[in-house]
Write a structure and sequence with these properties.
CATH architecture of the largest domain: Alpha-Beta Barrel
CATH class of the largest domain: Alpha Beta
Number of strands: 13
Largest sheet: 7 strands, parallel
Strand order of the largest sheet: 1-6-7-10-11-12-13
Structural class: alpha/beta
Order of helices and strands: HHHEEEEEHHHEHHEEEHEHEHEHEH
CATH topology of the largest domain: TIM Barrel
Number of domains: 2
Oligomer: single chain
């Protein structure tokens, strides 16, 4: 099978010749450690570790950030030896430690929307008519997407993720109750923007999969009620996914951390095909999830924390997951997040090799 055939079959729970090879990659501090342990500084992660090719389409479509056009100006507001306060490209004011920035969460100080006046100003950066500007150089995209053996994936910022970028977690929780009309307007704008972007992009290039960032769950469950998701967000997702499929998109993959079990049926109802990364520390057991949702594509599910332990600990964790799956599709085995800095290069290489032993056993 080609990389494209293997990836698409995996997401749609169809038989594959072997597992699709993918990992989220290391944190920056992990990469620094690996370089000291022999990893070539100029190496490309995917090719060095033998991953299957997968093209992430590089346009202004957002992901963990919102698709502002233009983006907000990033600027430092205060800086000391211990921390920095800055405004990022989403217009969010944050405070972060000067050291260990990728291993600690920033403090969120202010978000760009607190009322309707803020929304009116921000909305100008989210105009669906700006879709051609977000797509950019079409000839460059055509060249990048030309190899039909390689799957193409468009990242987008999900409805909850985008609203969270606008209001913050607390502000979003309030606006749903205090001004549901404003919240609905944000949802409508999101749908119009991404409908225009997907339509514009697919005129020129093939988009096999849309990857939706929706970090809407934590270790004890979702940050929004399933009822509010179904009321406000499900209709927008159904409309966008329907439009995307009419324009040739074959799969929808949702990225949400934490315990997402209550949200899985809602995403399936809306038309999604697969979810990731199924964090083990949040109680996600992908074998149990497969039993409950046999049509759900699963990407992830291997506890990254095990790689900081012994080789036996790594074997036990891989066995826990892969011994319960086969080549009938529906699983892309990966760590349940990026690789933390307590994982050595040797341990990561051993983990990959042990996962690939399952391909040779079958």
């Amino acid at each position: 099978m080609t990389s494209r055939e293997r990836f698409m079959a995996s997401l749609r729970c169809q038989p594959v010749d072997r597992f699709f090879r993918y990992e989220h990659g290391p944190w920056p501090t992990t990469r620094e450690r690996w370089v000291n342990e022999g990893y070539p500084p100029d190496a490309r992660f995917e090719s060095y570790f033998g991953m299957d090719p997968l093209l992430r389409i590089g346009i202004n479509s957002g992901y963990t950030n919102s698709p502002y056009h233009p983006q907000f100006e990033s600027k430092t507001l205060e800086e000391t030896a211990e921390y920095r306060v800055y405004s990022d490209s989403d217009g969010v004011v944050k405070k972060e430690l000067t050291t260990a920035r990728d291993t600690s969460m920033p403090q969120f100080i202010r978000f760009p929307v607190t009322d309707r006046g803020d929304w009116a100003a921000v909305k100008a950066r989210l105009n669906p008519a700006d879709a051609p500007g977000r797509v950019g150089n079409v000839d460059r995209l055509k060249e990048a997407c030309a190899n039909t053996d390689v799957p193409t994936m468009l990242p987008i910022c999900g409805i909850f993720g985008h609203a969270r970028n606008l209001f913050g977690d607390e502000g979003l929780s309030y606006v749903i109750f205090d001004d549901p009309a404003l919240f609905a307007e944000v949802m409508d704008n999101w749908l119009g923007l991404y409908a225009a972007l997907v339509t514009e992009l697919t005129r020129s290039v093939r988009v096999d999969c849309i990857l939706v960032w929706e970090d809407m769950c934590y270790k004890n469950g979702p940050l929004i009620s399933p009822e509010h998701f179904r009321q406000f967000m499900s209709p927008c997702y159904r409309d966008l996914i329907t439009l995307a499929r009419k324009n040739g998109v074959e799969a929808i993959l949702v990225d949400t951390d934490g315990d997402c079990r209550k949200m899985i049926p809602l995403f399936l109802e809306a038309g999604a095909d697969a979810l990731m990364p199924f964090e083990v520390q949040a109680g996600m057991d992908v074998a149990q999830i497969r039993e409950e949702f046999p049509s759900l594509g699963i990407m992830g599910g291997i506890d990254k924390r095990a790689l900081a332990g012994s080789r036996d600990a790594i074997r036990r964790e891989v066995d826990r997951v892969l011994s319960r799956f086969d080549r009938n599709g529906g699983l892309i085995p990966t760590l349940d997040h990026t690789v933390p800095p307590n994982v050595s290069l040797e341990s990561f290489q051993f983990y990959l090799e042990y996962v690939r032993e399952y391909e040779r056993r079958a």
